[in-house]
Amino acid sequence: MNLNAEKHHKLKDLVNLVNQSEISSIKSIVSGVIKIINDPDSTIWDLKEIIEVDPPLTAKVLMQANSAYYAPPKRIGEIKQAVIWIGFDALKELALSQKVFGIFNGNGSFKDYSIASLWKHSVAAALLAKMIYRREFRERGANAYVAGLLHDIGIIVESQFLQNEFKHVLSKAKQEKKNLSEAEQEVFGFNHAHIGMAIAQNWNLPQELIDAIGYHDKPLEADQTFSKLALTLYVAEYCCKNNSIGYSDVPFPDDAIFQGCLTALNVEPHALDLIVASVTSELAKMEGQGLV
User: Fold this and answer.
1) Are the C-beta atoms of residues 253 and 190 closer than 8 Å to each other?
2) Which CATH number fits domain 5-23+109-288: 3.50.50.60, 1.10.3210.10, 3.40.50.11810, 3.40.190.10?
3) Cα–Cα dist 131/273, whole Å
4) For a 10 Å CB count at each end of the chain, is N or C smaller?
5) CB-based burial of residue 70 (10 Å sphere; 0-12 exposed, 13-18 middle, 19+ buried)?
6) pLDDT tens for residues 80-91?
7) Using one digit for the tens of pLDDT, what is the confidence trace for 89-132?
8) What is the DSSP letter of 113?
9) What is the 8-class DSSP label of residue 205?
10) How far is Cα 68 from Cα 64, in angstroms, rounded to an integer?
């Protein structure tokens, strides 16, 4: 992250504001779920404990577990019942998405942006990244799902703490036909990926997630040790844009970067078509149940 001392100071101030705001409420569940994801010895009881320590989250998870989307044969009244019915991995994702959704609030819509369309984009990116990992790499893709949900957290921060400047950024990007990060760079001296990376570092998230969030718009610049997730996230965002799924902060994606990502990941374009079709179908079901 090539920023001068003044910009680093502004980022630090923003992170401090975040840590005193409602946004920081997701820190414990995110950290807890990530710990479970990366611990092969974790059990359903670990997940149950993380969820139940947060009564509002418990209520939301149980409400969704009882929805027509999961269609339980009888009412689910406890988290352990939810695990049995919808599965360990699905419950982790449900708990995480329900908690993260709580920070997606702000001042309605402006230009092509709205908080609802950003949430839809984030969920789609999470599903796409996870499915690329599972189908193409034969890996679980749990960290990919987390990265998809959180990669644009910097935009949430801008919309809440830099409201007037953020509207100017959106106007500038629209009028001058620029990607959001370019307009942000000109107005703030940094972009939403820098903000997200600073938050991820402050929260001590795994380096793979820090790099994915920080380099999701420029994945070919990421450290090769942790670049796989950043590359996958760019591919997911590219697919979202090409299929008009939610708000796109990259209305002018770079085809060369996209092809470079596919080459680095050894993923064929036709494989993506099948993945996009699956995710589009899944999103339609989720929308029908009010999950997106």
Assistant:
1) no
2) 1.10.3210.10
3) 12
4) N
5) middle
6) 999 889 988 889
7) 889 999 999 999 999 876 567 767 899 999 999 999 999 999 99
8) E
9) -
10) 8
